[in-house]
Amino acid sequence: MKRERLAILGASGSIGASALDVVSRHPQRFEVVALTAQRRWKELLEACRRFEPRWAVLGEADAADALRAALRREGIPTEVRQGATALAEVARHPEVDTVIAAIVGAAGLPPAWAAACAGKKILLANKEALVLAGGLFMEAVARHGARLLPLDSEHNAIFQALPPDYDRSRPDDFGVRRILLTASGGPFRERPQETFPAITPQEACAHPNWSMGRKISVDSATMMNKGLEVIEAYWLFGLPPSRIDVLIHPQSVVHSLVEYRDGSLLAQLGTPDMRTPIAHALGFPQRLEAGVRPLDLVRVGRLEFEPPDLERFPCLRLAYEALREGGSAPAALNAANEVAVAAFLQGRLRFDRIPALIEATLAQLPKRELDTIEAVLEFDRLARDRAESLLAGEGA
Ligand SMILES: NC(=O)c1ccc[n+]([C@@H]2O[C@H](COP(=O)([O-])OP(=O)(O)OC[C@H]3O[C@@H](n4cnc5c(N)ncnc54)[C@H](OP(=O)(O)O)[C@@H]3O)[C@@H](O)[C@H]2O)c1
Fold this sequence. Notes:
Layout: E1 4-9, H1 14-24, E2 30-37, H2 41-51, E3 55-58, H3 61-74, E4 79-82, H4 84-92, E5 98-101, H5 109-117, E6 121-124, H6 127-143, E7 147-150, H7 153-161, E8 176-183, H8 201-204, H9 214-222, H10 224-237, E9 244-248, E10 254-260, E11 265-269, H11 275-283, H12 297-300, H13 314-325, H14 329-345, H15 354-364, H16 373-392
Parallel strand pairs: 1-2, 1-5, 2-3, 3-4, 5-6, 6-7, 8-9
Antiparallel strand pairs: 8-10, 10-11
The protein binds NADP nicotinamide-adenine-dinucleotide phosphate.
NADP nicotinamide-adenine-dinucleotide phosphate binds next to helix 1, helix 6 and helix 9.
Pathway: Isoprenoid biosynthesis; isopentenyl diphosphate biosynthesis via DXP pathway; isopentenyl diphosphate from 1-deoxy-D-xylulose 5-phosphate: step 1/6
Binding site for NADPH: 13-15, 39, 126, 128, 213
Binding site for Mn(2+): 152, 154, 229
């Protein structure tokens, strides 16, 4: 059997590491042909030793030079390339069958877009790509015969709970009443709100159930992650915002649910480990060994659910509002959030000021229809500039 040729974008990150772990369990089935990162070249070197891909791409020139020298010293034949153009080129290369899109933030959009326009199978973790350009992206997937499989655990769970022939343009024909995205509630679900100004990046990045990159960890702590996921679900599954609900579920065992017309609720459950959705999407429609500890429901004991508190976590409300408004609003939300989270991680913005900065940025930006990917990227830059200038007036 011909092996499936993979490009793993964001291979040095948390999803990248989980993907490499699953892939390493199936050497007969997958061949890693490209690995990418922005600057962490040592992680990429380690992965090149294990998988000897044809290409390694780094965003930063110094990191690319360092990796090139190290590979030469060790006699590993991987070709090192550098920059955003090279990243898009490997994503669309004819010798790549499947692209694992696991870059964090808007930076992941151009290579994911290149993969969609080249008709690739795309395993999407980079939810920001859909938040920024969901309509254009879904259109490109359809027009170029690409295949999109969700890696986000909630969306992968919904995908598993929907019928195999589900068509996002006709949810009612499949009896789908609504979808319920579960959320752990993050590390501050029960923390007194008056102490939010004192929250440190270290506290925000200590998620109770998942081990993730720093940006998504902060997004989980503010619940913006769930807001971005609501927008992602809107594009993936074609339901209006009023039929996409969020449910706090602190155990993170039920990964999301679909409610049907007849009253049935179908859920996917499992140990919180990203290797499950990654293995599901990699093997689909077959099931692959993922190295994940089976879920022991007796040990879990209790499954709890509660509604989200939008006053405590205004980012979730802002995301729903941006989705309802449409046009450029979700792109503005995403850009302002990326600026706010980076500033918080650098000690330039207090945790409790993150939603305020996002809301102020949204209020100041013009509303536009974004009809091309270039217009999306240009609007993203504009929104970042606006958020940065508002941030300059903040003081941490
Ligand atoms: N972690 C999870 O459990 C999880 C679950 C569901 C969805 N996701 C989504 O998956 C994506 C990745 O999350 P993560 O937690 O794996 O993040 P992460 O650990 O921070 O890894 C991010 C990856 O993106 C690369 N990168 C960063 N900036 C880049 C740029 N400007 N250009 C090109 N590459 C860049 C990083 O390279 P360097 O390492 O060199 O900086 C790294 O390889 C996010 O969209 C997140 O929302 C993550």
